[in-house]
Amino acid sequence: AQSVTQLGSHVSVSEGALVLLRCNYSSSVPPYLFWYVQYPNQGLQLLLKYTSAATLVKGINGFEAEFKKSETSFHLTKPSAHMSDAAEYFCAVSDGTLGRQLTFGSGTQLTVLP
Amino acid sequence: EPEVTQTPSHQVTQMGQEVILRCVPISNHLYFYWYRQILGQKVEFLVSFYNNEISEKSEIFDDQFSVERPDGSNFTLKIRSTKLEDSAMYFCASSEANQGRGGELFFGEGSRLTVL
Asked: For B46-58, what is each residue's pLDDT tens digit?
């Protein structure tokens, strides 16, 4: 069984400030971890993924995430928020088994204040 | 850039009616998925499809639901006898490699189903 918990359903930051979106996972096997972003009225777009290679993963739009096994975390960060980052962000986990699903967290709505 | 396309973008139906949601996955992809998101809730897995058969399905995917790949391009989700609680955004996704091995899922923009 696997699950994802995203702490904070809403996060607000000022433009130029650090973005930190929290994700903790539970998995009985080594996980594959993903962050997706959903802009209004659009589908889910992959930001980055962890698949057991480097623990610090860089993604698109300046985002990165660090896999910390000891903390079962995969938090998403960006050094400097931009207005265009306003969106909903979803963390997801897979156990890597052939044909298995992604299990999503409940999402975090990011608001960027001018 | 190749993309997953879904139709319709929004469908309103009466309770008890049948609905078919259509998806055109990216052409060289082999795995196809349906997810749904009830307003204000998590994105939930419904079903995955590979080699013309269901490879995995969730508890949500009961006999009311079915999927089909009727030709070489379309992937459909049929919901029989819709219920109020079927109102949700339905996302189609595809991948060229199994996502559990790190293959990226490409999602469509979703089909919003409203059941009255």
From this structure: 999 988 899 889 9
